[in-house]
């Protein structure tokens, strides 16, 4: 299983494409997606980035649920995520992360954690999985805003809208 993590580079524009609807179908729609994201959040709880997330169980559950809805929507499922306050959905998501000081180490832990959950998904075509991974690998670079030299930087990005 490849699912490679490519490093973030400060100052480099990030390009990404939303996941293909094929992934959403292959994972089993809303139900499959919920299973994946709940498994991811169980692992987050045990991860080295758990401190980023609410320690209160009820608050943690809320984030888990809203994150699940976001992924359902971004993967081509029903539009069930909350209003993006007039912003494009991905832009809104990037700005949510601005409130946290996220460095490359935290991103790698985040990606490693979701990769573990993805490795548990059975009977899924490798190519379809890689397409979803590409979105995660590139989009997660936009959550990184703190760098080793002590600086804060918010990357520019372009979003491709090809039909897959
Ligand atoms: C592909 C990359 C990522 C996506 C699509 C994503 C998506 C999301 C979503 C949908 C939420 C819930 C927002 C809400 O509705 O309140 C969220 C919250 C959060 N994400 Fe991410 N995320 C990504 C990467 C990361 C990374 C790399 C980190 C690193 C630590 C991170 C840390 C957080 C934190 C701390 C919250 C909780 C916010 C809170 O307490 O309100 N995310 N993310």
Would you give an account of this structure?
- The radius of gyration is 15 Å and the shape is globular.
- With 164 residues, it is mainly alpha-helical.
- The protein has a two-stranded parallel sheet with strand order 1-2.
- It is 49% helix and 5% strand.
- It has helices spanning 21-27, 29-45, 57-74, 89-97, 104-119, 126-139, and strands at residues 14-17, 157-160.
- The longest helix is centred in the middle third of the chain and has 18 residues, at 57-74.
- The chain has a single domain (14-160), classed as Globin-like, CATH 1.10.490.10.
- Bound molecules: protoporphyrin IX containing FE (HEM).
- Residues 49, 52-54, 63, 66-67, 70, 93, 96-97, 100, 102, 106-107, 110, 136, 139-140, 143 line the site of protoporphyrin IX containing FE.
CATH superfamily: Globins
Strand content: under 5%
Number of helices: 6
CATH architecture: Orthogonal Bundle
Tell me the Rg in angstroms.
15 Å
Order of helices and strands: EHHHHHHE
CATH class: Mainly Alpha
The total beta strand count reads 2
Helix content: 40-55%
Tally of domains? 1
Question: What is the chains' assembly state?
Answer: single chain
Bound ligand species:
protoporphyrin IX containing FE
Query: Which structural class should the secondary elements be placed in?
Result: mainly alpha
């Amino acid at each position: 299983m490849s699912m490679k993590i490519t490093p973030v580079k400060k100052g480099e524009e990030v390009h990404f494409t939303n996941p293909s609807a094929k992934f959403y179908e292959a994972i089993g729609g809303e139900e499959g997606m919920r299973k994946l994201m709940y498994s991811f959040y169980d692992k987050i709880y045990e991860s080295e980035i758990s401190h980023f997330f609410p320690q209160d169980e009820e608050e943690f559950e809320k984030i888990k649920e809203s994150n699940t809805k976001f992924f359902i929507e971004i993967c081509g499922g029903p539009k069930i995520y909350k209003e993006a306050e007039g912003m494009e959905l991905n832009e809104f998501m990037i700005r949510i992360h601005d409130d946290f000081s996220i460095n490359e180490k935290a991103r790698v832990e985040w990606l490693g954690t979701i990769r573990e959950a993805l490795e548990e998904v059975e009977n899924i075509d490798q190519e379809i999985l890689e397409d979803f991974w590409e979105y995660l690998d590139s989009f997660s670079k936009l959550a990184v805003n703190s760098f080793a030299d002590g600086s804060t930087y918010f990357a520019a990005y372009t979003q491709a809208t090809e039909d897959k």
